[in-house]
Amino acid sequence: MTDGPAPAEELVGRLLEASVGAMDIVAVYLGEQLGDYRVLHESGPANSTELAGRTGTAERYAREWLEQQATTGILAVEDVSAGALERRYVLPTGYDEVLANPRSELFVAPLGRFLVGAAAQGPALVEAYCSGGGVSWAQFGDLARTAQADFNRPFFEHSLVSGYLSQIADLDAALRVPGARVAEIGSGGGWASIAIAQGYPSCRVDGYDIDGPSVELARANLEASSVADRVRFHERDAATVDAGAGYDLVCAFECIHDMPDPVAVLRAMRALAKPGGTVVVMDERVGESFGNVGDLIERLFYGFSISVCLPDGLSHQPSVGTGTVMRPSTLQAYVEAAGFAGFEVLPLEHDLFRFYRLRL
Ligand SMILES: C[S@@+](CC[C@H](N)C(=O)[O-])C[C@H]1O[C@@H](n2cnc3c(N)ncnc32)[C@H](O)[C@@H]1O
């Protein structure tokens, strides 16, 4: 814990600054949804009339958004002294990676969709906080659903196999054997299952998700991939999957903390693993215990927890109500209740995620 709270005046300044940051996120949401960043990247510098014409939006709004983007330091201006209608704006080199390239590891624009999607449920959140009920993943809708999928996509595509699964030597060997099988629990937009099938050409992958629109999204993403013949997405509550103990790898990425009954799901995961198989959970890299006051990662995950993950988890009762900040000790209690002999934290570095290998 720290020495104590900062003076009230400092809090005022901090919250004003945070509001400006929140407005940047709203502007990123607009720019991504309307295609402004993509058009500026693909077609080059534009004034407000040109941008509005290319995106099919209203010039007056385009002008204000462009001015805001330049003022906040995201877009550059060719000639600041030009008149408001003539002034042309530039997406700086490299910024397309952050704002308009869904395959780039720098792509964080989906945060706009995620946070606006959460804020749109403000009144429902207030109601849930009073009643003890929840706001479901379905209610957060496509903004959160697609933002989640798009935010994790670059990591799954570029690194999941090459930097993580392949570092677990016995698992890597098992997944290279013809006929190897993988079950992904809580597969969301499907990018992890697709990446595993791409990284391991002998593997067949089953993705299971309880959310129908997520399964549809995953199937659409799969359709456009090169591995459609080796991956299947199933709309199922993972706790009820009883496909037999046939999987070499059973994995769950960033979803156990969302589940009302994680023990039931972990029990099902244990039953799906073949003897000698591997069960991996990737979840948030939060501290071992409460008290990391001011820590950026901890603040980020508590922010997601109060606005999305805890309300999602509490939206189906009975629920253990985990929230995003699932500490290792919490997961340990779940895995032991599910019949595992504990877990090992794998020595795999990531700023946001910790990788647990569950002992069968
Ligand atoms: C935060 S998203 C993570 C999605 C994906 N793994 C990723 O990293 O992008 C959590 C996912 O878990 C799914 N989920 C929650 N409870 C589930 C359950 N009981 N069975 C299967 N899927 C579940 C949700 O529908 C959602 O798609």
Task: Give a written overview of the molecule.
The protein is of the alpha/beta class and about 350 residues long. The chain folds into 2 domains: about 10-100, Orthogonal Bundle (Arc Repressor Mutant, subunit A), CATH 1.10.10; about 120-360, 3-Layer(aba) Sandwich (Rossmann fold). It is built from 14 helices and 9 strands.
The topology string of helices and strands comes to: HHHHEEHHHHHEHEHEEHEHHEE
Uncertain stretches: none
Please give the number of β-strands: 9
Strand order of the largest sheet: 5-4-3-6-7-9-8
Residue share in helix = 40-55%
What CATH calls the topology of the largest domain is: Rossmann fold
Topology:
Elements: H1 8-33, H2 36-43, H3 48-55, H4 59-71, E1 76-77, E2 89-90, H5 95-99, H6 110-119, H7 122-131, H8 137-164, H9 169-175, E3 181-185, H10 191-199, E4 204-209, H11 212-223, E5 231-235, E6 247-253, H12 262-272, E7 273-284, H13 296-313, H14 328-337, E8 343-345, E9 353-358
Parallel strand pairs: 3-4, 3-6, 4-5, 6-7
Antiparallel strand pairs: 1-2, 7-9, 8-9
Helix pairs in contact: 1-6, 3-4, 6-8, 8-10
The structure holds S-adenosylmethionine.
The site of S-adenosylmethionine (SAM) has 23 residues, from helix 8 and strand 4.
Q: Would you kindly provide a brief summary of this structure?
A:
With 360 residues, the protein is an alpha/beta fold. The chain is built from 14 helices and nine strands.
Q: Which keywords apply here?
A:
binds S-adenosylmethionine; two-stranded antiparallel sheet; 2 domains; 14 helices; Arc Repressor Mutant, subunit A; alpha/beta; 360 residues; seven-stranded mixed beta sheet; Rossmann fold
